[in-house]
Amino acid sequence: MTPIKFYLVTDTHYYEPSLGASGKAYEEYMKTEQILLAESSDMVKAVFAQIMADKETEYVILPGDLSKNGEKESHNSFIKELYKLKKAGKKVYVITAGHDYNEWSRSFVNDECVPTPGVSLEELYDLYYDFGYSEALAVDKQTLSYVAEIAPKVRLLAVNCDSSDDAKGVIDDRLLDWLQVQIDDAKKNDCFVFAINHYPIIPSVPVFDLVGDAHVKDWRKIASFFADNGVELAFTGHMHIQSINEFYSKSGNRFVDICTSATVGSPVQYRKIDITADAVMTVETLDVPDFGWDLGGLSVREFCDRQFVVSNINKINRALDGDEKYKKLLKKFLNSVKISTLGKLLFIKPDKSIKDKKFMDFAGEVGCKIFAGDQPYVEGTAVHSAVSGVLKRFNFIIKKVEPKLQKGDEPLNLTEMLLNTIANNKGFSDNNAVIKLKNTK
Ligand SMILES: [Fe+2]
Ligand SMILES: [Fe+2]
Question: Are 328 and 335 in contact (CB under 8 A)?
């Protein structure tokens, strides 16, 4: 096959700063926002500058959520940055997603959050025409999915599962039929085909299988469709998480899903992919570089991790706002209780390395590590012992819940699912991996 190297940058959530990103309403909004907004433009520019400095990598691929929330001004500015990549010799391919055309385009003027003009799904085709559609062999106008031969005998299947407000994360039978035609044509022409899709196709961590918005609908069917049609590889985003997962169809064909972090939020990374002529793929994870802001002595990663933890704690607290007495008590308890106290209540002895941590900080830290991939809480670690202790205590409830949550034919083991969510037991890294592909010409 033709060797190919590309950068995979996703969920840039670019926000045009002149729309306004300060004031009381902005500060209030950012209390529960996981990704950065005022800084996003400079973060994206810093990543693109790093990409432009690499003269050996010709391609940049972006699988959706390009803008913060579909603001016209954000798209216009972001597209200018894409043209700069082009001018520097890069070939750029995008798909759009839910955050590129939704109804919640807002800006922050003085101390107010005010609506700002957004774009419709139909407008996105013209706006991004030069970044995929202009050289497409076929376009599905309904979803803005397309296929393009980006290098000799290498076809990109750009699938848009996020093109309708009432069917988010859906690849329906009509789109599957269209994809079948495109894959058959690629095969007839002896092409290597890989896909991009905004939503993860395989749940990034086991517990995401239970979360509807965390993967495409009917993901086993979709993953099997690709695997059995010889499309072994897809790059995805949406969940702002680092993961690499494989799935085998009932016919024994493999499908690999590589999901990448948002560019503008924890774990604040992007990827460089290198597929050699003999189909060995190297996946390298890169950090978003310093983007020239004073982050109070923190690194970009530390700054974004802090935003992740604080915004999620604030979300929990906001959910517990209200006059009901039980909410007030629960809120107070969760914000003050230490792991050691929880341990006493549940007859568990937590390791001394974690016992003095406040529960909320501890949960935030664990959540942050889950989204960074290569989850470190394997058997024998203090966190694994504490979590498995808690799960044992609640086993009688878990056993009652499991049949209700089960989706496929296989019985659900919730304990194993949760423990494999905090520990990467897959045998390969979510961040840096070498994968031998088989479906190549
Ligand atoms: Fe996103
Ligand atoms: Fe998304």
Answer: no
DSSP state letter for 152? T
Q: Give the pLDDT band of residue 409 (cuts 50, 70, 90).
A: confident
Report the distance separating Cα 248 and Cα 171, nearest Å.
19
Q: Which residue ranges form the domains of the chain, and what is each CATH number?
A: 4-293+430-436 (3.60.21.10), 300-422 (no CATH)
The percentage of residues in the chain with a pLDDT greater than 70, rounded to a whole number, is 99
Q: How far is the CA of 121 from the centre of ligand 2 (A)?
A: 14
CA 104, 102, 96, 248 torsion-angle sign: positive
Looking at the CA of 98, name the nearest ligand.
2
CA dihedral 168, 169, 175, 180 (to 10 degrees): 180
Report CA(25)–ligand 1 centroid distance (Å).
Answer: 22
- Please name the helix (run of DSSP H) or strand (run of DSSP E) that holds residue 156, with its range, or none: strand 154-159
What pLDDT, on a 0 to 100 scale, did the predictor assign at position 26? Answer: 97
How far is the C-alpha of 287 from the C-alpha of 300, rounded, in Å? 9
Residue 153 has pLDDT above 70, yes or no: yes
Q: How far apart are CA 223 and CA 219, in angstroms?
A: 6
- pLDDT for 407 equals 78
Residues belonging to the chain: 441
Distance (Å, whole) CA 324 – CA 67 = 38
The tokens 């905090």 sit on which residue?
A: 422
| The predicted structure's pLDDT at residue 441 | 43
CA 396 / ligand 1 centre spacing (Å): 37
From the CB of residue 437, how many other CB atoms can be counted at a distance below 10 Å?
18
Residues within 5 A (CB) of ion ligand 1: 11, 65
Q: Which ligand is nearest to the CA of 102?
A: 2
Structural element, H or E, at residue 94: strand 91-95
- Cα 200 to averaged position of ligand 2 atoms, centre (Å): 10
pLDDT in tens, 350-381: 999 999 999 999 999 999 999 999 999 999 99
* Distance from Cα 94 to the centre of ligand 2, integer Å: 14
Q: For the whole model, what pTM was predicted?
A: 0.96
Helix, strand or coil, per DSSP, at residue 20: coil
Ligand whose nearest atom lies closest to the CA of 11: 1
| d(CA 398, ligand 2 centre) in Å | 30
- Please give the distance, rounded to the nearest whole angstrom, from the Cα atom of residue 50 to the centre of ligand 1: 22
pLDDT in tens, 316-358: 999 999 889 999 999 999 999 999 999 999 999 999 999 999 9
